[in-house]
């Protein structure tokens, strides 16, 4: 059903899909902030385990300290009893210098 609005005796369609893009912009106070540039560092390399996954990072580092030769991602998940993949977490930890990749999908405690 189309939405019709009477403006000065003329009828026009005011359906959201038919409103020109320029009129559909968000008000200035509702606009999102611009994204952070990719070259801006989001974490200090070798930073302590802060952030939302800090406790998981601490558990992973503690486990890897027991296995100096490193563990596969699936071994870490099994030993910690985690049902989801830890690949992204480990990649972030590698980026931050907390762990190092020994071989494909095998991680050990970082040397720094």
Give a concise summary.
With 112 residues, the protein is of the alpha+beta class.
Note down, in words, how this protein is organized.
The chain has helices spanning 54-66, 73-80, 87-95; strands at residues 4-7, 10-13, 71-72, 99-103, 106-109. It has a domain at 54-109: Orthogonal Bundle (Arc Repressor Mutant, subunit A), CATH 1.10.10. The model is unreliable at 42-51 (pLDDT under 50). It contains three helices and five strands, in the order ββαβααββ. Strands 3-5-4 form a three-stranded antiparallel sheet. A hairpin with a 2-residue loop joins strand 1 (4-7) and strand 2. The chain has 112 residues and is of the alpha+beta class.
Strand order of the largest sheet: 3-5-4
**CATH fold field value of the domain at 54-109:** Arc Repressor Mutant, subunit A
Specify the structural class. Answer: alpha+beta
Radius of gyration, CA atoms, in whole angstroms: 25 Å
- pLDDT < 50 runs, ≥5 residues: 42-51
Order of helices and strands: EEHEHHEE
CATH architecture of the domain at 54-109: Orthogonal Bundle
pLDDT averaged residue by residue:
74
